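From the pipeline queue, job 12 of 40. The input is one protein chain; the requested action is below.

Action: predict structure.
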Amino acid sequence: MIRGLSLVFCAAIGLAGCGTLYETGSATGESNDGFANRLLGRGKDAGPQQVDVQKILTETTGPLAILSQEQTQVTILLRKIAQNGGHSTYVSDDGQSLSFRRGIITATRGGGNDLMATEMESSVALISSKREGKSNRRMHYLNGEGERFSLSFDCEVLRGKREPFVSGLISTTTQLMVEQCRSDQYEFANTYLISSDGQVLGSRQWINPQVGSVVFQMIRR
């Protein structure tokens, strides 16, 4: 597991047992492919890695986050490579990427059944300003056969409690926000821990029916 992740964070986003869920490698000067393979549990020598967050932070620079898929329990290290206003992009060493708007996932690449784009202006406005209200989102996908399709959701954003957030080099108090969404086929609840400046530091967000939800946690801003 990743040592040093806060169980308080796990409880705040409603993920039971996530303190023992995460496994990862460290950036130790090996090739990017080797690091990514160990991180994703691939290769003949792949096995549970027990490297602490402090080692990762010492051997890298720049903003870092950890992303875990709930269904597979695969965890990857993400590095921020671009920031343009409220839009940011994070990439893993094996080329998977996620795009965010104010910390809310808008697109994925390299993971299969990718989320190509998301229209969710009302949700972003409510969540980042820590306000309750009605919202909607439309999520556009590309399936494994190269076909595009979209899912539309009606949502409600609710304000929860103030929650501590302790992760890597970050220690602060956040506001819990919950985004409950429903369509004719699917429903999900995203949870966000928002900093005083409106940044999502930790979250649990639904990607698509195949992947389900992922847990995102900043360890260095």
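Job complete. Helices lie at 7-12, 32-39, 53-58, 121-128.
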